[in-house]
Each structure stands twice: as structure tokens, then as C-alpha cells.
Amino acid sequence: TMPLTAPDFDAVTAWRRKLHAMPEVSGDEHQTAREVIAFLSHTQPDGVIAGIGGTGVAVIYHGDEPGPTVAIRAELDALPIAETGTPAWRSGFAGKGHMCGHDGHMAILAAVGLALGQKRPKRGRAVLLFQPAEETGAGSAAMIADHKFIGARPDITLSLHNMPGVPRGHVWLKTGTANCASQGLRIVFTGRTAHAAQPQTGLSPAGAIASIIPALIGLSRGTLETGDFTLATITHVKIGEPAFGISPANGEIWVTLRSQTDAGMAALLTAAETLAREAAARDGLKIAFENHDVFRASVNHPDAVALLTTALEAEGVPHSEGETMRASEDFGRFADVSTSAMFFLGAGEDHPALHNSDYDFPDELIPVGARIFLRAIHAVLG
User: Fold this and answer.
1) What pLDDT score was predicted for residue 248?
2) Other beta carbons within 10 Å of 304
3) Half-sphere exposure of 258 toward its Cβ, with a 13 Å CA cutoff?
4) What is the H or E stretch that residue 87 is in?
5) Which of 86, 111, 293, 372 measures 20 to 30 Å from 207, CA to CA?
């Protein structure tokens, strides 16, 4: 079912490397979005919707008959990580790099677009969704909330992520939770300064912070295997200013909360906030909370998993159930509007890990991912 030739894939690979050299971080993917539109314009799509949820793009291919809409989703954004690898196409933007492989995911969708340009589905619509701000957890919510999204709203949404540590070209795919929910919780305490010789005349957050650090860590429990996994990771702590003469008034803790389910996340967040409020009340401190980088759990629907499994077997791609990822992925919200599933495509057992500064996407995965998606599209749309 794959009509593309070696020169076609060479062109997509060259484009992937161009994207790698021009990384843009979450919310700032303007040039990347323009590159997507320009590259796929040669396929003469039946519709292009730009600026969805910020910089998001939908490229649409119509069949001749009415039918469902199948969307394939990739991410536009890179990371604020300076690249230390030395490919000829290394990042040209200081302090930024495609260290997660989103350039490769976009290239896979571009290959699917080239194929759809040559052979439209028989019915319905195939939509290539390019999502902004995946790394911050903000992009999918912004896309789905945008009125422009109605013009590309899918019935089925499929996605992938490359996965170092898994044999190259081997797929992990499972029903249920593929990626955990997570969010950052910033806890801010406010008291009153005092002279360091008379700390009793002030209200210091030091005691409250010292007491809740182990209590927050203690919220971690369960395992992915038993299905009740939760994790609280302290990532930043600050108390006062760097001075020996002042008992501090202000302090904060940053903790990343992680859970296997959205319900588990709600309970974990409540428990963390309760611990902090109790500590603040004991010491007469004011308290405030901020939530950051909120990711829903990504839960694979059995029907979408069955569709992908059939495509994998038809294409002869080796696959197994694999693991639930502790790391989060901003794909879970697509389950609110469609039947959805994500699979993990092995980047190689010895490949640099995601977010490593020397990571680079393996170009050999482009045709593999494109074949899987194209097979799934035509299985639904003909």
C-alpha cells in the first residue's frame, strides 16, 4: 500500500534534517508550522487549517464518498536543550534542539501526506494534525478548544512516539494507559522576616518546608504492574534570600506529581495540597498553589489498538505489549473527542535517550511509521 519510492523518502529525510536544524520550543513553532504547510502543499491537499490552538496545523485529504475522519497526530515543538551531537544538520538555534524526535514524527506524517497526495482514501477524510506545545502539556487542550478544530475534528486519532531502549523498528502497543498523568505543583509559603538573632519575631517557612518534603515524597506508592502507581518528585526548593542576617519570610517547593490514572492524579493533588495547608496552618503562614505542565493520562482505546495491531501485522512490523510509560505525553485529551491510541516505535537499544543532548531521530524509522499509519488509514477509509 506504500506508493512512495526511495527518492520520495530521501526528500522527506532531507526535510526532517532541515527541521532538526531549526528547532522551535513550545508555543513558538511559527516557522516550523510554515515549513509543514509549504512541504505538504505539493501534495495538493483538500484543506489546510493553520493557527489551531496557536501554531497547530491540520492538513486534510478527502475521499470521494462520505465517511469517518481518521487523524494522525505529530508534534511541532523542540526542547530548550543545547545540542551536543555533531550531525551535519545539528541545531542552528542556540540552546534549542529536537532532542525528543518530534522532527522525525513530523517527517513520518509528511511521508503519509505524500502518499495520500498520490492516492486519496475512498471515503471520509484523512487528517494530518501537527500539534504545538506538546512538551508543556498545553498544546492539545489549546487545539481542541479552538473553534478552528471543528473543521478537522476526528473520529479516530492515532499517534506514535519513538522509543530509545527498544529494538529499532520494534513496536510497543497496549490497551489502557500508555503514558501516566503528571503535573507540576508549585507551593508558595509567605510569612514575615526577622533578624536572624531573633527569629521568634518573624514567621519563617523553613520548618514547614522541612516537614513536608519527606511527607510529599511519602505520597509515592504502588507500581505500574499493580495499576496504582503514584510518584511525587521534589524538583526545586527555595527559602529566603542568600543572607546570614535574615530569618526568611518566603519559601517555595516545586513537586512533580505523577499517576497512572487521571482519578489517581486528582487524589494525589488533593493529598499534596492538604499536607501543605496543614504545615502552613501550624506555623501561621499564608499559602498559595500554582499548577504547571498539566498532562492527562494517555489511555489507548481497544478499538484503536485493534486497528493499529492489524496494520502492524499486515506490514510485518514486530510488536509486543511493552510497558506503560512513567513519562507523560500530551495526547490523552484526544480521547475526549475521538477513539485514540498511541504506539511506541523502537529507536534502538543503544540509542541516546529522549531529552539527551546528543539525541537525533533515526531516519530509518520514517518509512516504518509511515507504512503503519497509511495501512491504518486505508483500513478505515478504503
Assistant:
1) 98
2) 24
3) 22
4) none
5) 293
pLDDT, tens digit, 9 for 90 and up, residues 40-67: 999 999 999 999 999 999 999 999 999 9
* Triad 122, 127, 3: Cα angle to 5°: 55
Proportion of the chain above pLDDT 70, given as a percent: 100
CA 292/CA 188 separation, integer angstroms: 14
The CB-side HSE value for 22 (13 A sphere, CA atoms) comes to 16
Looking up cell 513537586 gives: 255
Burial 196-233 (b: 16+ CB within 10 A, else e): eeeeeebbbbbebbeebeebbeebeeeeeeeeebbbbe
- The residues facing 128 across adjacent strands are 59, 72
CA torsion 293-94-55-162 (nearest 10°) is -70
Asked if residue 9 lies in contact with residue 369, where contact means CB atoms within 8 angstroms, the answer is no
Q: CA–CA separation, 182 vs 256, rounded Å? A: 7
For residues 89 and 234, what is the distance between their CA atoms, to the nearest angstrom?
36
Q: Which pTM was predicted?
A: 0.95
229 pLDDT exceeds 90?
yes
Q: Which residue has the cell 475521499?
A: 63
E strands present in the chain? 47-52, 56-62, 65-75, 123-131, 156-164, 171-172, 176-179, 181-190, 194-195, 230-239, 246-247, 250-259, 286-295, 298-300, 319-320, 339-348
Burial of 37 (0-12, 13-18, 19+ CB in 10 A): middle
Pairing of strands 339-348, 156-164: parallel
- Residue 182 pLDDT exceeds 90: yes
Closest CA to 63 of 50, 88, 46: 46
What interhelical angle do 6-20 and 102-118 show, nearest 10?
150
Residue 153 Ramachandran class (φ > 0 left, ψ -120 to 50 alpha, else beta): beta
Beta strand 65-75 with 123-131 is parallel
Q: How far apart are CA 119 and CA 125, in angstroms?
A: 12
From the list 366, 355, 360, the residue with the least C-alpha distance to 87 is 360
Query: Has residue 1 got a pLDDT over 80?
Result: no
Would you say 16 and 363 are in contact if contact means Cβ atoms under 8 Å apart?
Answer: yes
